[in-house]
């Protein structure tokens, strides 16, 4: 029974596990840059995004969606697509942080952490949808 459940949900479980790792990277880098060295929160947010997306690409590719490519071109296309769709969720991320920190004045380190954590929940859901249905699709594996 456990094996049956694992086989049915292993992609979601793997995505959630690596999503937690990626989120820890994102929030950790953001907190360190924004609260630790007092960098502008949006600059810190973008740097944290870039590093966490790099972690997400390789973990999603290998351990979540088992994406395989046979050429450098296929790798480049997949990598660019991944960053493109993550760029769309970066816009959500930046807007969410702007509303929380600038408009609602959640400025303390703890308040920024809460805003960033809620932000990540929304972004993770959007990222899964993009990855599962637009980037690492079975149809695309055969076209590349």
UniProtKB/TrEMBL annotation:
GO-annotated cellular components: plasma membrane
Segments traversing the membrane: 12-33, 39-58, 83-106, 118-135
Major subcellular location class: membrane
Keywords attached to this entry: Membrane, Transmembrane, Transmembrane helix
GO biological process: polysaccharide biosynthetic process
Cellular compartment(s): Membrane
Residue ranges occupied by any GtrA/DPMS transmembrane domain in the UniProt entry: 15-136
Domain of life per record: Bacteria
Pfam families: GtrA_DPMS_TM (PF04138)
Membrane association type: Multi-pass membrane protein
Record-stated family: Belongs to the GtrA family.
This protein's name: GtrA family protein
Organism: Candidatus Limosilactobacillus merdipullorum
């Amino acid at each position: 029974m456990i094996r049956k459940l694992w086989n049915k949900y292993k992609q979601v479980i793997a995505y959630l596990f690596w999503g937690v790792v990626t989120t820890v990277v994102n929030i950790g880098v953001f907190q360190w840059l924004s609260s630790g060295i007092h960098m502008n929160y949006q600059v810190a947010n973008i740097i944290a995004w870039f590093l966490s997306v790099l972690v997400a690409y390789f973990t999603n590719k290998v351990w979540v969606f088992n994406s395989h490519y046979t050429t450098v071109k296929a790798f480049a296309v997949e990598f660019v697509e991944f960053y493109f769709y993550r760029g769309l969720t970066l816009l959500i991320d930046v807007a969410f942080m702007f509303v929380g920190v600038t408009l609602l004045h959640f400025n303390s380190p703890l308040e920024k952490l809460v805003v960033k954590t809620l932000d990540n929940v929304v972004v993770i859901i959007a990222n899964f949808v993009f990855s599962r249905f637009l980037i690492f699709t079975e149809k695309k594996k055969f076209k590349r």
